[in-house]
């Protein structure tokens, strides 16, 4: 618990209207998008500018108080859980879009801007920021950069780090550092900006972000393909990518998350099918038409049914159903252990087959979904933590699924980050020297470990 003296100092820094301390409010900030983790902070603050963040960090550092940055709290790795208590520093009141510059194809925003608000503002000018985490109606730009988030469109356009041009960051001791700039090319010194992109709030708090933008493609079209066998669907994805077409999105949903599709596609075919692939191609209208034809030809060789959305309205119905995946899977069991592995694209079918075998051995249901065009899967083991024996089997299955991904040349997190959830796998997934370097960087930038402590590596 931090004492009243500290709370009063925080009130003086941010204004008393921006400080929460009640028991109920602490519960509200004790969790994020993960199911298994929660811990209450002692106080939650909502700074309104970088100076307030800097002063808070300086004070917390001098007094050894943990500070956990938080945007929308939608992450699914335990990243914004204040596992050591202390201060939750929530950026949602720093929500100004400072500039959208159509000529320079860039925009500068405060960290608390909600991704959807940003996209809506860009769309009015015919522009877009490609990374599209499916939590876009609630996640913030600070969270997106701190997690180096991905999403369906990252297949063609790349993840967040490919769009960060400049950052302003408040360091653990309160110093503010400006990194990068406004230009798409910048070879000045070490790439320090990349150190903070994806650092999960453990090295500094991002107070301003400049991002590269793209013009909205002139046309797009969506293809839906239904399969009986998940591994065959996986092989089909590999064939699409190997055929020299780069769709903007290739998403994979299995029968556990068909609920929202039932209103759109006849139940009969879904009842006897295992997988839906949702594929979007974008670009110039004539290119889109030719590439959709190519996708249809390839998918028809293996799929039970292939549909090309007749118009934007039908396509949007399919994508809405895809966006319901997370709530759909969480409605299927008392507990879901949801992973985020990424495997090389030519290993997608192997990953599915081997993971299915593991689930069979442990006798637990497993669901696959994800941004499969990138080889990025969210395998979910369905369990019930009230049944200890089942839960233990589910955990063992998850461990094995992660081992499978690593053996196939994959990684333990494609986009969700390590946080608390995946810290126990880090030693298996990273060169020990690389972990040592990361720890030295942490010690250099935050010697007292007051910034988002307990994350990324297991600490006691
Ligand atoms: C339904 C659902 C769908 C999702 N889909 C995707 C997806 O498709 N792709 C994907 O990549 N992710 C996805 N996510 C995960 C998550 O939404 C993203 O990681 C998102 O970018 C997090 O943003 P946030 O504002 O909610 O961050 P938070 O959850 O608040 O924080 C995330 C991390 O960033 C740190 N942080 C937050 N703000 C700052 C800041 N200003 N400076 C420094 N550190 C900061 C926090 O300490 C924490 O470690 C999904 C989550 C849900 C619940």
Count of domains? 4
Distance between the termini: 20 Å
Please provide the count of β strands.
20
The backbone outline, from C-alpha atoms, is globular
Q: What is the oligomer described by this structure?
A: single chain
Q: Averaging pLDDT over every residue, what do you get? A: 96
Amount of beta strand: 15-25%
Main sheet makeup: 6 strands, antiparallel
Number of helices: 16
Helix content: 25-40%
So what's the CATH class of the largest domain? Alpha Beta
Side-by-side strand order of the widest sheet: 15-12-14-13-18-19
The low-confidence runs, each spanning 5 or more residues with pLDDT under 50, are none
CATH domain fold name of the largest domain: Uridine Diphospho-n-acetylenolpyruvylglucosamine Reductase, domain 3
Q: Tell me the structural class.
A: alpha+beta
Radius of gyration: 22 Å
Q: What characteristics describe this protein?
A:
460 residues, alpha+beta, Uridine Diphospho-n-acetylenolpyruvylglucosamine Reductase, domain 2, Uridine Diphospho-n-acetylenolpyruvylglucosamine Reductase, domain 3, Alpha-Beta Plaits, 4 domains, five-stranded antiparallel β-sheet, binds flavin-adenine dinucleotide
